[in-house]
Known about the structure:
The structure holds two protein chains of two kinds. By secondary structure, chain A is mostly helical.
Amino acid sequence: MHGDSTTPQTIGAEVRRYRDGDSGAAEALAARAARLSLRTAAALLSSRDEASDVSQDVAVDVLRSLAKLRDPEAFDAWVHRITVRHALRRVKRRRGRHAAETPLALLPEAAEPVAPGEIDRDAVLAARQALADAFASLPPKQRLALALRYVHDLPDAEIAAALGCRVGTVHALLSRGRGTLRHDPQLAELALAFGGN
Amino acid sequence: MSGTNDHDLLRAAFAPARTLEPSPVEVARVMARVPAPRRPRRFPMAGNRRRFAATALAALLALCAGVYAVPATRAAIEGAADSVADAFRGYQRGDTKDTPGRPLTGRDRAPEYFGDRYDGRRFARQPRVLAAAGGYRLFAYRSPSGSLSFDLGDTGVGMGFPSADAIGPGALVVLGAGAMRHADAEGHVPLFGLVADSVSEVELVYDAGPPLRRAGVEGGFVLLASPARGPREVLALDAAGRVVGRQLVDDSPHGLRIDWGRY
C-alpha cells in the first residue's frame, strides 16, 4: 500500500491475533480492508459515497470470511480479490446510470500535493482531467487492472490473483488500457510534459 | 504517452486515490456489522458440558451486551464527555432553559392523557417535543410523581424513569419502537431514542444496505426504520463526526426487545 511500511508478516500476525479472539486486531483489519478497498473503488466509481459503500461491504465480507484464508500473510490479496468482485458488481449495476460521470479519484484537486517534485503540477492536474475522460471509456477489468497497478503498485501476479485470471491476461489488460489512453490525443500531448518523446 | 512517462503520468493521475483513508465512522460501521472474534476452543468438549458452556456464554453475552456492545471501539465511545442523564437532569428539577427539544404547539397532537387532571394539575407537566419524523413524535414530560416520562408518539408506549440518572450513563439510549406493531404505509417502523447534548447526528446501521442518518438531533430522535433490511445498531455522533455512543437496537437496557420479523 502506498506510504505503508506494514509487511505481510505484520498483517499475518494481526490475522492470527484476530483468530485468537483479539477484538483490537479485528478493528485494525477492518480499517486496513476498508482502506485498500476504498482506494480501488474510488478509482472506478464517481462518488466517495459509493466507494465508501463498496469498501464497507468488502471489509465486512473479509472479516466474515477470514476463517477461509489459509495463508494469513495473504490478507491484502484476499481483500483485493473481494474488492474486485464487489466493484465489478457495482459497475454492472450502475452501468448506464452514471456512465458520463468522472471517476472521483481522477478529479483535479487544487490544494493537494499530487506528484513527485520534478513533475509539473499543472500537467498533472490537466492529465487527471484528460485521463478521467479517457478512463471512463475503458472496460471495467482494464480499469481495475490499471487501478490495482497504479493505486496499489501491485505486480502482474498479484493483479492476476485479484482478478482471477492468468498473468498473461493481466499483461494484456494493462497494455490495452495504456494503449487506449496513449491514443487519446489530449493525453498524448500531455505526456510530452512528462518528458516523453 | 510512452515508456516511463506513461507510468509517471498514470501514477500521478491516480494520486488522490492512493491517499484516501476510511473515516472512523466508516470503520465503526464495519465493526457493527461483523460478529466479535471468538477465541477458538482448545479442547473438544462432551455434549452436556458443551451445552452448559454455550448456555453460560449466551447468558454472559446477554448480560454484557447492553453495557458493552462492541469492545473494539470502546476507546472511541469513552471519549463522550456527557450523557443522556446530564441532558435531562435540569428538566427533572423543572428547569426547561437548557432542556432539549421545544414546548408543544397545538399542531403536535399530543396524547389525550397529557391533558388529564391529577391532584388538581395537569398530568403531563412541561411537555416537550424532542424529535419528530413521518408524523411520529417523541414527547417528554414530567409526571405528577416527579418522574421523567417519554412517550413514543402515538404508538401506545410510554417509558418512565424515576430520575434522570436512571435513564443511563451513556450518550445514547435506544428506547425502542413501541410495543404495538406500528408501521407506516410504507412499512417503516418508528424507532425512538434519547441522546446527550454532545450528539448532533444519529445513524441506524442495517444488516444490508446503506445506513439511515438523521442530522441535527437534539436530545432525542425518531428514525423510520425498514424492518426488512435488518436494523442492527444505532450510532451517536458528535459534531466532529466521532462515534460517542452506540447501541444494538434489539438490546435496550430498559427491557424493550424488538422482534423486527414481526413488523
